[in-house]
Design goal:
With 269 residues, the chain is mainly alpha-helical. The chain has 10 helices and 2 strands. α1 crosses α2, α6 packs across α10 and α7 runs antiparallel to α8.
Length: 269
């Protein structure tokens, strides 16, 4: 099978599983993104582990999974908001565990372990709050978000490939262009308006604001993940999805977009 057809086949399978889990019910949604979050955390720890830095895999996994489960339970009303404070206590497990590891760079290890949870777990956990922004589980908002995210990525790529001349951030990502960023952004705003015609959970202006947030923060998320890979001299974050790289490669835009969309829908909206 050629690389093109392999990429296409696994892309279709990946999107089908994602959409199916979102639409089926709240449980499949929560389980799928828990698994994705765990996979993202594993990739991050694998990338940053070197001779001079070793994130605490056991403590990181325990705290990371606990963080997702607690925030998901709060978002869906299974437990009250006060349970969020438990996460702060769980985070203290990481420096305490480091006391007993006897590693060369304990502070760096603690920092990398904690940042992995913040970077790879928290955005997927916050997705649960966006899914319940109207009190009950609302797959329409999540599906609309992914449509706009995929639109932004696709339009920026296509415009950049055909018209791109001025580099957006050449030191980090030599292929990204201002033309791709601006052209892709305009087309994504149009996609936001079209999305509002079919998904009525949010108004047209709200969908377009979300599209704008995705264009800005999604691009920054992509650049940060490129910085991570460039720092550790990697082409892809992993190979879990044949032809598509790793989980961080597929969800790098989400990692930055979701927290800002959550802030907009909860505090500004």
């Amino acid at each position: 099978m050629s690389n093109f057809w392999q990429r296409t086949l696994f892309g279709i399978i990946f999107i089908s599983v994602l959409i199916g889990a979102i639409l089926y019910d709240a449980i499949t949604f929560r389980i799928l993104f828990l698994l994705i979050a765990i996979g993202a955390l594993e990739e991050f720890y694998k990338i940053v582990k070197t001779e001079n830095a070793e994130p605490n895999l056991v403590a990181g996994r325990i705290v990371g999974i606990s963080t997702y489960v607690i925030l998901s339970a709060v978002a869906f009303g299974i437990v009250p908001y006060k349970y969020i404070t438990i996460i702060a206590a769980f985070l203290l497990i990481i420096p305490i565990a480091e006391l007993y590891r006897n590693k060369q760079q304990p502070i760096i290890n603690i920092a990398l372990t904690c940042f992995g949870i913040f970077y790879a777990i928290m955005p997927f956990a916050l997705l649960n709050f966006i899914a319940t922004i109207k009190s009950n589980y609302n797959p329409e908002i999540i599906l609309g978000y992914f449509i706009l995210q995929w639109s932004s990525d696709t339009f920026a790529y296509l415009v950049g490939m055909t018209m791109g001349k001025r580099r957006l951030f050449e030191r980090i990502s030599p292929k990204k262009s201002w033309e791709g960023f601006i052209g892709g952004g305009i087309l994504t705003l149009i996609a936001g308006y079209i999305t509002s015609m079919y998904f009525h959970s949010l108004s047209g202006s709200e969908w377009m604001i979300i599209a704008f947030i995705i264009v800005i923060t999604g691009t920054l998320g992509d650049l940060v993940e490129s910085l991570l890979k460039r720092t550790y001299q990697l082409k892809d974050s992993g190979n879990i999805i044949p032809g598509h790289g790793g989980i961080l490669d597929r969800f790098d835009s989400l990692l930055f977009a979701i927290p800002f969309i959550w802030l907009y829908l909860n505090f500004i909206h």
